[in-house]
Write a structure and sequence with these properties.
It holds the Pfam family DDE_Tnp_1. It comes from Blastopirellula marina DSM 3645. Keywords: DNA recombination, DNA-binding, Membrane, Transmembrane, Transmembrane helix, Transposition. Belongs to the transposase 11 family. This protein is extended. By secondary structure, the chain is of the alpha+beta class. A hairpin with a 2-residue loop joins strand 2 and strand 3. Helices cover 43% and strands 23% of the residues. It has 6 helices and 8 strands, in the order βαββββαβββαααα. The strands form 2 sheets. The protein has a 6-stranded mixed β-sheet with strand order 1-4-8-7-6-5. A two-stranded antiparallel ribbon has the order 2-3. The chain folds into 2 domains: 131 residues, no CATH class; 88 residues, no CATH class.
């Protein structure tokens, strides 16, 4: 933990110990040494409620960012002997979003008290974009494991994966598939040659084009019938 930093966490890091680590005792009171935004599960079960909470009014920008609730209060432990909970002011921001025609919510807990709820929503959204980028690296750039644990080795592997993915995209005109990266990996490690895998990749792409065209026709037909 470094002083003066802002930390963004997903649900796997929620907990009283994580929150406590962002404070230090100064002049007999707990003072933030760093800020945080943590995604929590909905209140209930293993996720605590925000006690003594006061509702904050929402601006048009807050509502446009999907914020449906902005409250300030404190966490209380139901098992005080087991959990150490600092008596510090916290903020709960609830965000709604649509996924596959279903309304879902994100609950964020933070000690950022002097910024708008919209800013907190944008902070978590930026964190999620980083998560999606790493998912893209693993799923589409085939960046599955580290071949080196040194900084220079990791950076080299990272840039090779990104450059290869972008060059393949520019050459094909569409996003390369994971199957293609697996085949290219065979060429890179010497298990196959480009001349051997090129016909396989062309046939694979032809089949994908047929599947995409068929799917587009089915969607158009379904839309026309409705």
């Amino acid at each position: 933990m470094q002083d003066g930093r802002l930390y963004l966490y997903d649900r796997g890091f929620s907990g009283f110990d994580v929150i406590n680590a962002h404070y230090h005792l100064q002049n007999e009171s707990w003072t933030p040494r760093a800020q945080f935004v943590i995604r929590y599960k909905p209140a209930g079960g293993n996720a605590p409620h925000l006690a003594d909470a006061d509702e904050n009014p929402l601006s048009e920008k807050d509502l446009a960012a999907g914020v449906v609730s902005d409250r300030r209060g404190r966490f209380r432990s139901s098992k005080a002997a087991r959990h150490i909970v600092l008596d510090v002011p916290l903020r709960e921001v609830i965000i709604e979003y649509q996924e596959q025609d279903e309304t879902k919510t994100v609950r964020l807990i933070t000690n950022l008290l002097d910024v708008s709820a919209e800013v907190i929503a944008q902070l978590y959204q930026q964190r999620w974009q980083i998560e999606l980028f790493f998912r893209w690296l693993k799923c589409f750039a085939n960046f599955n494991h580290l071949i080196s644990h040194h900084r220079s080795g990791v950076l080299l592997s990272f840039y090779v994966a990104v450059i290869a993915a972008l060059l393949t995209y520019l050459h094909l005109g569409h996003r390369p598939s994971k199957y293609m990266f697996v085949m290219l990996e065979q060429v890179a490690c010497g298990a196959a040659t480009w001349e051997e895998i090129a016909p396989i990749l062309r046939e694979r792409e032809r089949q994908r084009d047929v599947e995409r065209a068929s799917a587009a026709k089915r969607r158009a037909k379904k839309k026309a019938e409705s």
